[in-house]
Specification:
globular, about 525 residues, alpha+beta, seven-stranded mixed β-sheet
Length: about 525
Amino acid sequence: MEIDVLIGVDVGTTNCKTVAYNIDGTKIIEYSVEYPTYHPKPLWAEQDPNDWVKAFIESAREVIAYLKKRGYTVKAICTTSQREGVVPVDKNGTPLARCIIWMDERSTPQAEKIERNIGREEIYKRTGLRAAPTFTATKVLWIKENQEEVYNSTEVFLQPKEYINFIITGVACSDPSLASRTMMFNIHKLDWDLDLIEAYGLSVDKMPEIKPSHELIGYVKEDIAKKLGLDRGIPVINGGGDRPCEALGAGVIEEGILGESTGTATNVMMSTKRVLLDPKMRLLCSGHVLPNTWLLEGGTTPTGAILRWFRDNIAIKEVEIAKKEGRNPYDIINEIADKVSAGSDGLILLPFFMGAKATRWNPYLRGAFIGFTLGHTRGHIARSIMEGIAYLAREIIDVIKSLGVNIKEIRLLGGAAKSELWAKIKASIWNMRVKRMRELDAAPLGAAILAGLGVGVFKDYSEAIDKMVKVVGVIDPIDEWVKIYRRTYKAYLLLTDTLEKVMTEIYREWGFA
């Protein structure tokens, strides 16, 4: 008997992952393929769109081969991806340059110029975003000002998910969740803001059509189907950005339920049925993959990537032990961090290795370990990284509370949620019970839910979530840690406030990289 399955694809910052799910949300198989990020200059970050395509085909082919051998039937496929990055594509469908991805900071001058000309408040009021180098409009403007030939030859600017969909279906389109991260999308009208785009000096003609996230946009083309090992072209559903899909895949779909996801970066998110703007513009409000819904979020620059940096550059001994014992090096890093007392004996991390987004929005802020002594070990560094990232998330949570939101629960997502120690640290720093989800990598699950909705497997979002999303554990704060973290969080805030002023002067006024 054939069993229907749904495929979610996540074109992430480090890899492309293809995942197949039963319609009860059970993961059948996943396969991921990594690709590089290029850093031609400090604070630049690029990826080759061809690497995404190769990784997608390889990962999807492996998954589809596994499913075919076992009699599964693929009902539909849907893609989610990292947001804000931009691929210039010419009239022949050829990428004209590498993608300038979300963490790239080269367009800081363009962001500052836009803010001067239009006004921070006006941009935020229309788009729910701040004028920051993260967002697509600043990157497109950088291309126009620095690569004029590329800009003029571009037929359409596409984000990663949009580019993959274009390759496999021939259809170039966006959706509200990705369009709203361009800083060219009006979150009230849920459409391109023509006046704003003109004020930037850009052209809406170079932006893709916007279609609903759950809409069937086409079928896998014959040439791609052959490469994937498909007998026919299966339906392709539009999909959306990774954070909105992650919220959907975690059941974070109502006001008061937060999702905290730490992977390469950290994001604290909440779905809402209204445009919810922060008077101080510390948080962003974007379109969603859910209809008539918005996503309030505090997204950061790379955070979980700091632990990876620690693994690659400092935890050499732990990596060697892991290799000898056939273990995951992060498990050993957790063990050495668990031996350190709460507060890391005074060692505090400022987790701003690539500048700051929410809540400070300062590209000149830098990372720092403060309070080093000769008594500190690699275990202290590891735990201080976990604590520093949790402090940053606490800043975002406190802002959400200040908007009058009654927070009922927080759901942990992303690779960091695999660590029970880190979950305990977060629960204690936030002084809130946290829930762990069965599917920690919820973005491809959210994409699979959209796939099911697009072909009628589910009648609505509520039915899809009831069937596919599961909570598997609850972690309470540790009272002793809560008392310690009240003090250390205050120290973290004081240090960050103080050093932010100094770093801004050094890195902006003195021209340091």
